[in-house]
Amino acid sequence: MGSKNKLRRFRENETFENVIQPSREELEKDQFSLKGKWNKDFFKNDNPIVLELGCGKGEYTIGLSKQDATKNFIGIDIKGARFWRGAKTAIEENLENVAFLRAQIELIDRVFAENEVDEIWITFPDPQIKYKRTKHRLTNAEFLQKYNHILKPEGLVNLKTDSEFMHGYTLGLLHGEGHEILYAHHDIYENEYSPKAVREIQTFYEKQYLDQGKPITYIQFRIK
C-alpha cells in the first residue's frame, strides 16, 4: 500500500464515528474514557461485547456482527490503515453494533474494565515461532491473564489459525495451566460439528490458505 493511500485512510479514520484511536500515553496512564463504559457511552445498550484481536481488515468483526445483531463487536489492531476497510464497510452497511479500536493488544487491560467483555476472537495471529518471540504470542500465559481480567466469569476465547505450531502451543499451554477447553480440532472443514461462526466466515488470507490445501485449526476455551 502506497504512503499516500495510507495517509488518506488515516485521515478518513479520523472522521469515522465507529473508530476510536486513543494515544498510547492515554492508555499507559490508565486515562481512557471508555474503559468500563463501552456499553453506556459508546454502544448505548447493554448487549454483550465481543472483541477481535489483531483484526486486520476487520473481515471477522464484520462477519460476526452480521451473524448476531444482539451483540456489540470491536475489532482491535494497531494498524489503522488495515481496519479502515472494515470501518468503512460497517458505515456503508449501517452496522451500528461495530467499532474499531487502534491500540496495542498488550494494553488491552487499559482499554476494558474487569468483567466488561463477553468473548474474544483471535483470528490468524502471527504465530511468533522463534522462542525469543514467545512474549508476543497472543495466547501466551501473560496475555491469557490480561484476557481473564477483562472477561466475564464465563467468558469465551476463540483461536482460529492456519498455524499448526500456534494450535499445538496453545493446546499445550491450556492443558498445562488447567484451563477449560470446550472445543479443539486440527481441521475445522473436516469436522461437521465445527461451530457456524468458524466455518461460515472466511477472511481473504484464509481463502488463500484453503486454496493451498492448508488445514484451518480452531480452539474455544475458558480461562481459569
From TrEMBL:
InterPro entries: SAM-dependent_MTases_sf, tRNA_(Gua-N-7)_MeTrfase_Trmb, tRNA_methyltr_TrmB_bact. Its EC number is 2.1.1.33. It catalyses: guanosine(46) in tRNA + S-adenosyl-L-methionine = N(7)-methylguanosine(46) in tRNA + S-adenosyl-L-homocysteine. Substrate binds at residues 130, 162, 203-206. GO terms for cellular component: tRNA methyltransferase complex. Pathway: tRNA modification; N(7)-methylguanine-tRNA biosynthesis. S-adenosyl-L-methionine binds at residues 52, 77, 126. Gene3D superfamilies: Vaccinia Virus protein VP39. PROSITE patterns: SAM_MT_TRMB (PS51625). GO terms for molecular function: tRNA (guanine(46)-N7)-methyltransferase activity. Keywords: Methyltransferase, S-adenosyl-L-methionine, Transferase, tRNA processing. SUPFAM superfamilies: S-adenosyl-L-methionine-dependent methyltransferases. PANTHER family: 3-DEOXY-D-MANNO-OCTULOSONIC-ACID TRANSFERASE/TRNA GUANINE-N 7 - -METHYLTRANSFERASE (PTHR23417), PENTACOTRIPEPTIDE-REPEAT REGION OF PRORP DOMAIN-CONTAINING PROTEIN (PTHR23417:SF14). Catalyzes the formation of N(7)-methylguanine at position 46 (m7G46) in tRNA. Belongs to the class I-like SAM-binding methyltransferase superfamily. TrmB family. HAMAP family: tRNA_methyltr_TrmB. This is tRNA (guanine-N(7)-)-methyltransferase. It comes from Salegentibacter agarivorans.
